[in-house]
Amino acid sequence: MSDEVLAAIARALQLDETERTHLFDLARAASTPRPARQAPVRVPVALQQLLDAIVHAPAVIQTGSLDIVAANDLGRALYRRVFETQEQPNLARYVFLDENAVRFFGDWDAIADDAAAMLRVEVARAPGGPAQRLVDELTEASDAFARRWRVHDVADHRRGVKLVHDPDVGPLHLRYEALEVTGMPGTRLFGYTPDPDHPATRDGLRLLSSLHAAPRTSQDHVQQPDHTRGKAAR
C-alpha cells in the first residue's frame, strides 16, 4: 500500500501523529522480513558521562521496549527496585510482574495502560524485535497486561507528571521530559524534575540522593586495613 493511500486513510480516520506513525509502521512491518535477534543496546561513553553530570535530577535512558539501558546515580536510586530485581532492568516487567509496583506508582492503572500502549508502538516500529518477545512473555504471565494488549491502544508519551511513592522518602511528584537519542532509534533519555506545585518533592529528591545516590569517595574503592586483627595480636 502506497504512502499516499496510507495518508488518506489517516486523514479519513482523523488519526493523531502517534496513531498515524503507528499505521505506517504496521504497513511497513507487513512487507518486511522478521529481523535477526538484535544485539544488546550499548550506550556511548559520552552519553553516560552526560547522564552522570546530571546530579540533582533522576535521568535514565530507555529503549522502546522499556529496557533501562543507562541511568545516573539518582535515576538508579529512583528505580532501585527495578535494578535490584532484574538482570536487565525493564519497566514493563516491573509494572506487570512485581507486586511492589502497585504501591510505588501513584496511578498504577494509568502507568500500566501507558506501558502496554508504548509497547504496541515499538512492536510496530521493530516487528520481531525485543518488544515482541517481551509482549509474548507478559501476555503469558500477566492477565492485567493481556487485557490491555487486547485493547489495541497506542501511545507515545514525551512529557507529563508522575507520582511515585518511594518507601524511604515518601511521595515524589515528578515532571518528566523525553528526548530522542540520536543514532539509537526508539531510544530516549527521560529526565525527571520536581513538580513546582509540590515543593516537598525537591526535599524528597535530596533525601533520596543522600540515602541511595551519595557519590563514592576514593576510600570506597580501597580495601581498608583490618585493625581488629592487630588489636587481637597485642
Short account of what is shown:
With 234 residues, this protein is an alpha+beta fold.
In terms of topology, how is this protein built?
Layout (H helix, E strand, L loop, with lengths): L2 H10 L4 H14 L14 H9 L5 E4 L5 E4 L1 H6 L1 H6 L5 H7 L2 H5 L3 H18 L4 H12 L1 H7 L9 E8 L3 E11 L7 E7 L5 H13 L14 H7 L1
Antiparallel strand pairs: 1-2, 1-5, 3-4, 4-5
Helix pairs in contact: 1-2, 6-8, 8-9, 8-10, 9-10
Q: How would you characterize this protein structure?
A:
The chain has helices spanning 3-12, 17-30, 45-53, 73-78, 80-85, 91-97, 100-104, 108-125, 130-141, 143-149, 200-212, 227-233, and strands at 59-62, 68-71, 159-166, 170-180, 188-194. It contains twelve helices and five strands. Strands 2-1-5-4-3 form a five-stranded antiparallel beta sheet. By secondary structure, it is an alpha+beta fold. A hairpin with a 5-residue loop joins β1 (59-62) and β2 (68-71). Helices cover 49% and strands 15% of the residues.
